[in-house]
Amino acid sequence: MSEKQVVSRHGSLMVYQDLLVATLPLLAMAVFLYGPRPALLWLAAVVTANLCDQLVAFLRHRPFDPLEFSNESFGAMLVLLLPASVSYYVVIVSVAVAVLVGKEAFGGLGCYPFHPTAVGYAVAAVSWPEQVFSFPQPGTWLPLVNAGSAGLIQSASYTLKNGGTPRIDTLNLMLGNYAGPMGATAVVILVACALLLAVRRRIQWDAALPFLAICFAIAWLFPRMGRVGLALPWVEAPVRLASVGYELCSGTILYTGIFMLSDPVILPRHRAARVAFGLTLGVASMLYRYYGSYETGVCFAMILVGSFASGFDRLHLRWLDRKEALNQ
Amino acid sequence: MTIEKARYWAENMTELSKNDRLWLNNPVIMQGVGLAPMVVAATSGYTALVLAVAVAVMLTPTRVGGAILRKALGEKYDRFAVLCYAFPAALCYIAAYFLVRHLWGPSALQQVGVYLPLLVFEPLIIRRYRAAVPEGPARALRRGLYTTVGYLVVLLGVGLARELLAQGSLMDVQLLDVQLFPLAAQPAGGFMLLGAVCAAWRGRVRAFKRNIYQEVERNK
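^ inputs. structure came back:
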């Protein structure tokens, strides 16, 4: 392996280390809101991911790399997308699928076309929707073992999907003090994590900003609440603003933009292609949210759009070739 | 395994592997044929059994019928080889359709859906037409039976495993109260399960062959 490859590999491995560290503040907030159960779930996810990594290393007759934290970061990211009341079994199975099917089956680190976290989440959502889309009330101290008995409610995304209007004040929306995925609701902490990742130069702004911008635009132009319909964009601005707040903060849009789009492997190589990727992912995510079977569709959108990542690169190169030919 | 047997295996590995349609050269695991009905339609032991009966009725007679027809037509009309196999397959499908309906009623046909008639075009049934040299009826009968057994073992195994994982039951007898992996009832889960089975099976076959050669090397 050349020096350049070693540096590149080291850099890419550091991304996962930073992503894993960035999940800790969100985990701390979840522990504050729901008790120690989220910490145990997080631990179960990380241990499962590590064991899967060791299993693959054993099966492929290659040394286990203890400094490679990609699997652990996928597991940690996945568990924060789930409710704090989800069973340990669901976490273990979905993390195992994320690592073994989402990553290793496609060739391992640097080769997976779909984000493994999205694959694991999709499997959990399709297999156990009653567990994945029911959330405990924040402030409820969940039992460590059987949390299914705690009173579970639907999320704000569910209310929006069914034509209702969530009633969450701005402070609670910012602090994550409402029913939702345990790591994806606390906007203030998500922003802090984004700053941390930005300082460490891990966030792929080329994809994340267009993704968030198009989600913002769709939520502004076509709000699902307040019966605004197809009115002009400046009519009913407060309702549109509330719609943007709920759409971006109550689901997993913000979380995806910060954490999952920071993985360089799933993104196209060229900047313009990454912008197109982010825009397409944003449109697909909002379409899934508006018309999909599940209220959280961003992971399904990520799997769908992930299959076109190399296509965006090819389109970009073809466009460059044509431009060059015209200039000559 | 005795050293004599290991030597025999090592010397004839290619031929023995080629003829062993159950373990070393299973049509599903090693050749990847017949995947569509297995992944989409065989979601339980019951639907797998329905498909298994249909495949058992169609595969060997189609292969033997195709071999006879191809031989009767001769090399001159070899471009019609596909019809030599498609015609018996279509006739056998009629028999399979009525047999399934007689055994389990029309609901069984609905459960396997379009994948029962699609067996007529399934490479597992008719792919022999691509062979440059036509096979004799006796050889077609022998190989057809071997392939049928190999396919049915995997089909029934995967169907039962999917039912157990998705519903916690085996042939509608409830064994578990929990759903271990509900996605197994969906085509995506079927692909995952079959992929895992293929990986484990192929790994075992590779280890078996490696052990044979190592045993022979050690006793040289």
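Residues 187-218 of chain B form the longest helix (32 residues). The mean pLDDT of chain B is 91.
thumbs up if we can close this ticket
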